[in-house]
Amino acid sequence: MNDFNVEFGHIYSDQEFGKEQIQSIQRAKKVLQDLEKRRKSFTTVVLIDEYSPIVSTLEETQFLKEMGNKDLRPDFIAYESNLTAIADKIIESIPKIKLKTESIKGKKVLILITDKKRIGLKDNLGRHTCSMLIAAWILARLGLFDIPIKKYGKSSFPGKKLITILPEKYRETEKKVLEILEVTKYKKEVKKVRYEFF
Questions:
Q1: What Cα–Cα distance (Å) separates residue 120 from each residue in 149, 153, 155, 166, 175?
Q2: Are 189 and 173 spatial neighbours (Cβ–Cβ below 8 Å)?
Q3: How many CA atoms lie within 13 Å of 2's alpha carbon, on the beta-carbon side?
Q4: Does the global pTM surpass 0.85?
């Protein structure tokens, strides 16, 4: 197992390679250089969100080419839709007393009630929230669950610890992710997650 699993370049399947991915690559290069200096092993991964968009237009081959042009191609590519089964297992591990169903915009939504806030998990149509899927993503990256992934580099996917490189706009979502995990049997995994926001 690698010392670190490093995520960068997150993109939606209805987007094209652009400024956010370039900024993410720049930050990732610094992070990876630091890991190399510290003689830590690592693997890199991009998560493509093709779960939220209605239409997928991202050309994966072109996307990888663009990343290669910036001198950092990922070792793996994963897809958000492959995280739903793990998300359901996490929901099963949440104490029932902390769960409530509420009507939101005409849908019944399963909500996690914490001391700090109410966090949506899944609606009555079976659609998971972004926070719920990313909680599953964290556990997959730590090697606690297997998911289908496309390999482009190193053979080992999981890491003992995680580094996630994301735009600042995702900070609140990621806080919810950790709060979800904090109320489950996976709460000890939270301390293994480090963020680099830009």
A1: 27, 35, 35, 21, 13
A2: no
A3: 24
A4: yes
- At 77, is the pLDDT very low, low, confident or very high (cuts 50, 70, 90)? very high
Q: Which helix (H) or strand (E) holds 107?
A: strand 107-113
pLDDT band at 116 (very low <50, low <70, confident <90, very high): confident
Question: At which residue do the structure tokens 């939270």 appear?
Answer: 190
Which pair of structure tokens corresponds to residue 111?
């909500």
Half-sphere exposure of 68 (CA within 13 A, CB side): 9
Q: Is the pLDDT score of 90 beyond 80?
A: yes
Residue 103 CB neighbour total at 10 angstroms: 9
* Selected residue with higher pLDDT from 98 and 114: 98
The residue extents of the domains of the chain are 2-82+138-197
**Cα atoms found within 13 Å of the Cα of residue 197, Cβ hemisphere only:** 9
Give residue 155's pLDDT.
80
d(CA 134, CA 175): 11
> Rounded to whole angstroms, what are the CA distances from 136 to 70, 82, 83, 88?
29, 10, 6, 9
